[in-house]
Specification:
about 150 residues; alpha+beta; Rieske Iron-sulfur Protein; 2 helices; 10 strands; elongated; binds FE2/S2 (inorganic) cluster
Length: about 150
């Protein structure tokens, strides 16, 4: 290997190292710019309907919190076996409500609002009912969608 070959290979090494360093430095910045520029509706695909649970996993007279498009939804199976889906987000300031099966109400621990089984606001500062969702049961799968 001549001195000139050594110089070329050192030059090649430095060139490739510089290219790699620029790539590593620039790619995260480009990713951030693209992420910022895209509207959130494109980034986070909004689903029209979604399978959220198996009907068999929901006990009669109980409720379960599931996620639908990143939103907390309360699934409730009535004593008659009917499945209902309501937003679990309190309409006062957005805390997640809890189902109290002994009282048959959704209770918000933040400021004490309560909602009945239909989602109607019955006490506390909550200004509106809980948002209802459409429920379809297909072959034992609970599928919810916006009304
Ligand atoms: S957030 Fe639920 S009562 Fe205030």
């Amino acid at each position: 290997m001549t001195a000139q070959d050594k110089e070329i290979s050192r030059r090649n090494f430095l060139s490739q190292a510089l290219t790699g360093w620029i790539s590593i430095s620039v790619l995260p910045v480009l990713y951030g710019m693209v992420e910022y520029a895209l509207p959130s509706k494109i980034r986070d695909r909004i689903l029209e309907s979604m399978h959220v649970a198996k009907e068999a996993d929901l006990l009669v007279g109980s409720a379960k919190i599931v996620k639908f498009n990143k939103q907390a939804i309360a699934l409730l199976k009535s004593e008659q076996g009917q499945v209902r889906a309501l937003s679990a987000v309190c309409t006062h300031l957005g805390c997640i409500v809890q189902y109290q099966s002994d009282r048959k109400v959704f209770h918000c621990n933040c400021h004490g609002s309560e909602f009945d089984l239909e989602g109607r606001n019955i006490s506390g500062p909550a200004p509106r009912p809980l948002q209802p969702f459409k429920v379809d049961i297909k072959e034992g799968d609970i599928i919810i969608s916006r009304i």
